[in-house]
Amino acid sequence: MNQPDTSTAAENPRALLPILLFLIVYLGNGIFFEYIHPAEGQMGFYVVSVVLAFSIALIAAFFQNRKLSFDEKIHICAKGIGDDNIVTMLFIFIMAGAFSGIASEAGGASSTANMLLSIIPGRFAVPGLFLIACLISMAMGTSVGTISVLVPIACAVSKSGGLSLPFCVGIVVGGAMFGDNLSFISDTTIAATKTQGVEMKDKFRTNIKVALPAAVITFVIVVIGGLVSKGAAIGNFEYNIWQAAPYFIVLTLSIVGINVFLVLLVGILLFVLVGIFTGSLGYATALASMGNGINGMFETMIVTILVASIASLMKENGGFEAILSFIRRKAGNKRGGMYGIAFLTVFMDIATANNTVAIVIAAPIARDITKEYGVDPRQTASLLDTCSCIAQGIIPYGAQLLVAAGIAQVTSVSLIPFLIYPFVLAVFVVISIQRTH
Fold first, then answer.
1. What is the DSSP letter of 13?
2. What is the secondary structure of 161-228 as a DSSP string?
3. What distance in Å separates the CA atoms of residue 165 and residue 247, rounded to the nearest whole number?
4. ∠ CA(65), CA(68), CA(74), 5° rounding?
5. What is the DSSP letter of 25?
6. Where would a tag sit more exposed on the chain, N or C end, judged by fewer CB atoms within 10 A?
């Protein structure tokens, strides 16, 4: 079989048509079923599976570039899927799914949240919710999981304290996005670091310089709001300190810089032991919960494979070169290249309503920009993760806001004015880019 030419492909904007087709199928149908003709009992942006939309886009990519045979295109896709970073990412997704599943079944998330809530004064209930959301999402590695655990508590705090419900829920969403952005076991962190070939601890050190100041300012704003309010009666929440302990151990090991596979394995074993010791897990439920957690990662893994295939074909056909040429005309220097990465990532997240997918799509182009403009790969990984989390934490049709709004029985749009952290984080991203020399 003839091997495809590995030299840089000529600029060809038409090679980007598969992404345009994906946007029409996924975003177009999502808007239609969410706002024009709502599907009863189902979120509009989940009527059309993202896997189906990318499958259609991949078929379209295969029909392009008649100079290559079908077998040659298969070879190009196989090389993209077989990239070391993609394979590593897929294996980590499996481990992260097993960890998330057994941690939830063992009662770790609820015990951790309830333990932290039990020590917070009523006047600082909302700032406390923000801090807890930050910690829980860093430990769990999932913003949606954190929101599912904490929004019911935020609703109780709002009712008992006479506080704005969208405000309380919005604060939880912001904290959840903070942890999602920084967690070592978050799929966004995994995608951002592995696609750029950097260590998670190095990306964390770069990322924290932007995320932590934004979180501190958000916390100060919320504390001021707590001081002028009458406070809330939080109530008594039951927790088991043994069930909470593995999360803090995993968080500590991650920050220290232990290999992510080892961290996840330790976390799984700890939750198995704690679950059996406290009676929250049995042999069968432990196995089932890990299996369910891995099943929950299947869509992300399939999307990663499809996107790697589409990206490989688009690059071979000149699509990436077209995007790079556009950025070159607008950028001109390192700072402009960083803005290009940021805007590309935000656009992809707005289009896909999935921050991990947005990173996987933007990552190959971002890697080329990094090389061309001399951007530190650690900064690129940080930009990919941070900008995708900013967009994902604000768009009203993303899973985070839809889940939060569904639990609280409010509209997702009503939460947007209270998403303090994502907006403050966006400001700090701009500041960090402007300070680049």
1. G
2. HT--HHHHHHHHHHHHHHHHHH-TT-HHHHHHHHHHT--HHHHHHHHHHHHHHHHHHHHHHHHHHHHH
3. 28
4. 105
5. I
6. C
Contacts of 75 (CB under 8 A, 6+ apart): 1, 3, 4
Residue 258 DSSP one-character state = -
Cβ neighbours for 311, distance < 8 A, ≥ 6 positions apart? 80, 320, 360, 361, 364
pTM above 0.90, yes or no: no
DSSP 9: P
User: Packing angle between helix 125-140 and helix 200-228, nearest 10 degrees?
Assistant: 160
CA distance 295 to 344: 30
Contacts of 176 (CB under 8 A, 6+ apart): 133, 136, 137, 143, 144, 146, 147, 150, 393, 400
pLDDT tens-place string over residues 276-333: 988 888 889 999 999 998 887 788 788 878 888 988 898 888 887 887 788 777 777 8
Contacts 24+ apart (CB under 8 A), 31-40: 31/397, 34/397
Handedness of CA 173, 178, 183, 185 (dihedral sign): positive
User: Cα separation of 98 and 294, whole Å?
Assistant: 5
| Tokens found for residue 121 | 């004064």
